[in-house]
Design goal:
The chain has 112 residues and is mainly α. The chain has a domain of 70 residues. The chain has 4 helices and no strands. It is globular, with a radius of gyration of 16 Å. The termini are far apart.
Amino acid sequence: MDQGNQKLRLPSPADRLEQIIAVCDRFEAVWLAGQQPNIEDYLSGDQSSRRAVLVELLRIDLEYRIKSGISLPLESYITRFPELAEGENGVADATALAGAGRELVMGRGRRL
């Protein structure tokens, strides 16, 4: 078969979900080891899933910061990751992040 005629195989939604879960698991493992991971270190250049990975990492980061008593204003996430406020999903992502923070502070978030 001529390699020039081969189509590039795009990852399936299940493959993307698996990749997101794996990244989040690695990120959370660092928190569980008593360290504070840097979100930027876990973001890949793959733009197709970057936003989904970013939002999930932010939720995990926020959860562990609150449970550890480490203060970080939500606005600092927007400053570091301006794409959260851009595009049609921007407001929804920022709102979801703020909602997750409120739920964790009020004790309704995921239990560690």
